[in-house]
Structures are given as C-alpha cells and as structure tokens.
Amino acid sequence: MSQSPFPALPLCQVTFPSNPLINAALAYSKEHTSECTVNHCLRAAAFALLLARKLPPLAAANLDVEAVVLSSILHDMGWSTTKSLLSDDKRFEVDGANIARDFVKSSTAAGVAEGWDKHRLQLLWDAIALHTTPSIAHHKEPEVFATNLGILADFLGPNVPIPGNPITVDEYKEIVRAFPRLGFSDQVVDILCGFCRDKQDTTFDNFVSDFGKIYGLDGKGAGKEEWATLCEEKNIAKGLMRGLEGCKQWDV
C-alpha cells in the first residue's frame, strides 16, 4: 500500500482518507493552483473532518467523508493558475464546481474512481458552488454543510460562530502547522480584486464586489471610487425595480 500524502493530526483526532481518487485530486490541485491555495483547501478539509467528529448533527449523519474531503480539496479550483480551465463569464465558485465534477467524471472513466453516481456528483457540485453561501449551504445535505463549515473555519479559526466553540486553539495550531498559511490573506485580496477587474459581471451580485470597493482593482486601492460607482449602477435591487417599472406599460 502506498504511503498517504496527508500528515497525521493526532491532537485533532483527524485522519485524512487516502485513496486513488483523493490522492489524484490533491495532485491535480497542486498542478493547477498555488501552494497557498492548496494549503488553504487542505486546512479546510481538516477543519471539516474535525467538526464532523465534534458536532452532533454531523457525527450522526453517516457522512460521505470522501465527498467532503474531495469537495474541500477542489473547492477553489476557480482560483486556478491554469487559465484555460476557467470561464470568462462564471463565478469562481461555479468554475470550481464544474472543474471538480469534470475531474471526477474523467477519473471514473480512467478507472481511478468508482461509485460516483449522479447524486454524489451533485453533492460535490453543490458543496463547491455554495461554499461562499452559508445561508443556503447550511440547509443542504450534511456533506455540503460540513464542507462550508470547514472553509469558514479556515477564515475564523477558534472564533467560528458555532455553539460550544468546538475548535480549540491547540487544534487550530496543529492544522496550521501542518498546512502553513503562506501569505493567504494577501492572496485572497489579490485574487478577489482580480475578479473585480477581469470578470466584473460575476461579482456584482455577491460579496466579491466588496473587495474591489475596499481594496481597489489591484488590491492596493486603485480604482476604488470608480468601482463603487459601477457597483451602484449594477445594484440588484435597483435593477429589479427598474424592470418592474418598465413592465408597467404592459400591465393589465
């Protein structure tokens, strides 16, 4: 049996499942995203496994652990450094979900994966597409919920707003030591401001546009005012009300 590529996390009592598909997904993410992104995704997977053990609703859910770990490892493929993988017109979460689904389908065809029926593929897709939308993800299947919690925990650590404060400082430190941050905060700003600059129409209806308002289109403040003005023009509520007003000419 080949050695697992994942380190032991004894304090967290977390063991990464290691099989040909998960190992191939890790290699794929390393090929197509930065080391900083890979480590973020691995921390998210570790936090998801930790919370799945500690939170009663997840512990009792007969969780599809392979789906949770795979979703976590591949959730930011929409940040790929291989630009040919990405669309020009889709949110990064949707790009990531599509890339992950295609990866599992091709792995199944190659004999690397098995058991990935329509339902499990949809779980994977939903977990990734909704990973920045907790107000929906937390009401989906337990695998989608667990994936979202793990990703959120990487941003908030022991301060993640879950009753009982289930992540201890020592557990947090063990995970971050295993998968160092490597300037993750700076990368988040750089990537999300880049979407405001390069994929503007994918940002107006979600939180990504806020990064452009705060940090500018280059992550250093350039173009903040112009971007804020454009976001105001693209405001969803205003657009909907303009549409309703325009429909009045046909109302009966």
Description:
The protein is an all-alpha fold and 252 residues long. Helix content is 60%, strand content 0%. Helix 2 packs antiparallel against helix 4 and helix 6 runs parallel beside helix 8. It holds the Pfam family HD.
Low-confidence stretches: none
What is the 3D shape? globular
- Total strands: 0
Structural class: mainly alpha
Please compute the radius of gyration using only Cα atoms: 20 Å
Protein name: HD domain-containing protein
InterPro entries: HD_domain
Pfam family, one: HD
Organism: Vermiconidia calcicola
What labels describe this entry?
13 helices, globular, 60% helix, 252 residues, mainly alpha
In short:
This is HD domain-containing protein. This protein is mainly α.
Layout of SSEs?
Layout: H1 20-32, H2 35-54, H3 56-59, H4 65-74, H5 92-109, H6 118-129, H7 134-137, H8 142-156, H9 169-178, H10 184-198, H11 208-215, H12 224-233, H13 236-247
